[in-house]
Each structure stands twice: as C-alpha cells, then as structure tokens.
Amino acid sequence: MQDETTATPDGSDEGTNSPLADHVYGEILSQILSGSFEVGMKLPSENDYCRMFSVSRPIVRVALARLGAGGIVERKRGSGTFIKRRPSKRLVDFAQPGDFDVLLQCIEYRIEIEGTAAAFAAQRRNDQDLANIDAAHDRLRTEAMSDFITPESDLAFHQAICAATGNIFFIDTMRMIQEQTVRLLRVSLGMTTSSNSERIRRVNDEHTEIYEAISAGDPVLASAAMRMHLSRSRRRLTDSTQDRGN
Length: 246
Prior knowledge:
By secondary structure, the protein is mostly helical.
C-alpha cells in the first residue's frame, strides 16, 4: 500500500479532496459517537485504519486532520491520536456523520466572516438597520420563551447584521452560504431544542449580547460577542457534555 498521495484523473489531490476521505471521516466519527472510545482514549493507529478501511495513509491522515480541525480529536506527536471531545449520540438524529465535517467548516468560516461583520454593523448601522436587527432579535426572544428557536429566525438575525455593514460582499456571502447555514442551524437548533430549556436560554442570551453590543455602537464587543456565540455553537455540536447544561 502506497504512502503517497494519489492524483485523480482531473489532477486533484485524492488525499485532500476525496470521497474515500469523506467515507473514512464518517466511519471514524460513527465509532466515536457509538461510544466505542471514551474521551481521552487513543484511537487505532493510521496503519490500523488503513487495514480496516482498505485505504492509503494519506486518506486516513486527511480524515483525522478534519476531525482534529473540528476539535473532536487531537494528535500528540510520538503518541498517536486521542479523543478530545465526543459529540452527542443524538447527532445522528439530525445529520449523517459524513456530513458533519461540512457543517463544522461552515461554522468555522462564519466565525471569521460574521465576527468582522458584527464589528462593522456596530460602527455603521443606521436607525433602520438597528430596527431590523431589533425586530429579528425580538422574534428570536419570543420563540425562546416557548422553548424553541427556528432556523429561519436565527438566519434572519444574522442576515440583518450583515446587511447593517452596508457592504455588499458581506450580504452576498451570507446569501452564498445560506443553504449550508440553514443545514447547520437545523442540526444545531434541533439538538438544542431536544436537549433542555437551559441550553435554549443560553443561545438566546448570546444573541442578546450581540444585539446590545451593536446597539451600543461597540465594534470590539460586537465582534467578540459574535465570535463567542458561533464558537459556543460549534462546541455545542462537538461536545456531548453541553447536553448536561455545562
């Protein structure tokens, strides 16, 4: 078995963009979700996974790297790869394990884009922009009082903030990633709604912190609040301990 990255007929790198890597990612994540490995345990070696899935080491490395980027595993030089966090078993009720990597990449992208957008919104929003953000926030708050938040309401809040930047590229970016964002929100909010009311309250409080920072015209606080909210959303997806109200 070769330890080299194999090029596909179109010249792309099989190790970095391959259905095989997607498959191995999903299989390893399924093992983690099933409880086969506890947090802190060492995963099988790359060679073990090569034999298990009949793939090359570059494929396994890409899959493990993606799991690492999502905060689920961590590689310790000279020791191997260990479980850092385990997502809730309920994840499979809302998404296929193989799709999880795309959702985490989406939220990683949003942290950077929307963190900057929130800062610009705090600096540039006019009265109408603030009224639009306030209306979207009020809709979220009303839903949260009934122990649910819809993806449509959550998306509208974030889109209103991007619109307040006055920059067409932020607005178009949110449109460009709308489909993936809605998928992400359905999974994230689905798990939140089926978890506990305290988790919904925390999500609502995070939205309130973002709104208040933008309303106060504080770009540093607005950016920090947005980044914290999205980072916490990622943590709620990847860490099953969040279901216990931690």
